[in-house]
Amino acid sequence: MKTRILLAAVLSASVAFAGPPAPKKEGIEGQGYVWNAQEGEKIEALKLKGDVTRGEEAYEVCGACHLPSGAGRPDGTFPQLAGQHTTVLIKQMADIRAGLRDNPTMYPFAATLIDPQELADVSAYIENLCIPTDHGKYEGADAALQVAKGKDLYEKQCKECHGGSGEGDKSKFYPVIAGQHYKYLLRQMTEIRDGHRRNANPDMVKVIKPYTDDQLVAISAYQASLKMPGAMCGDGKK
């Protein structure tokens, strides 16, 4: 554990320590790319049972940016991870490691996971964490209006996949968005709409493509207000 803590500190000071950048494979716009192809270390990790105790040690490296609680940063630089589905976590980390999702800040940390078992372990630990209730929300003077507008959009086109409480769908790799930071949600949806999130679900790209900047602000504001019953900190979990 001490070795991981030291490594996290070194990586936080200089991500260049980890060596060369991730390989870059063709993403959503490339020929032959399948959004959720069942292959490689991802499918191996998904078949394994994650060990929460081992995962806690592996998470030491992640906590340097995402915080020990998994709360991330309210300014949206690092997402809230706590309570996220293991399927989603495994897919995203595997995609970053394989070069299907561009995240040069995350890559050196993801690269420290040694094998599919450790990928499964750290994902199990993160999923087991309670979702913080204190996170970044839309703070404009028109917050109530934006949330109301966003709710209308969400219920028309997002609820079917992400659920009424933002619980997502573990079996379909749809992420939990309850408790996520407003600024992170806005940034990711903008990148998906504009074609910059190479491992995005093509179905979501089609839905979000017509959205204006104002609509993305509203829907992000609403999503950031969602709470997942039974999973929030102080709501039967700790």
Automatic annotation (TrEMBL):
<feature type="domain" description="Cytochrome c">
    <location>
        <begin position="145"/>
        <end position="227"/>
    </location>
</feature>
<feature type="signal peptide">
    <location>
        <begin position="1"/>
        <end position="18"/>
    </location>
</feature>
<dbReference type="Pfam" id="PF00034">
    <property type="entry name" value="Cytochrom_C"/>
</dbReference>
<keyword id="KW-0249">Electron transport</keyword>
<keyword id="KW-0408">Iron</keyword>
<keyword id="KW-0813">Transport</keyword>
<keyword id="KW-0732">Signal</keyword>
<protein>
    <submittedName>
        <fullName>Cytochrome c553</fullName>
    </submittedName>
</protein>
<dbReference type="InterPro" id="IPR009056">
    <property type="entry name" value="Cyt_c-like_dom"/>
</dbReference>
<feature type="domain" description="Cytochrome c">
    <location>
        <begin position="50"/>
        <end position="130"/>
    </location>
</feature>
<dbReference type="GO" id="GO:0046872">
    <property type="term" value="F:metal ion binding"/>
</dbReference>
<dbReference type="InterPro" id="IPR050597">
    <property type="entry name" value="Cytochrome_c_Oxidase_Subunit"/>
</dbReference>
<dbReference type="InterPro" id="IPR036909">
    <property type="entry name" value="Cyt_c-like_dom_sf"/>
</dbReference>
<keyword id="KW-0349">Heme</keyword>
<dbReference type="GO" id="GO:0020037">
    <property type="term" value="F:heme binding"/>
</dbReference>
<dbReference type="GO" id="GO:0009055">
    <property type="term" value="F:electron transfer activity"/>
</dbReference>
<keyword id="KW-0479">Metal-binding</keyword>
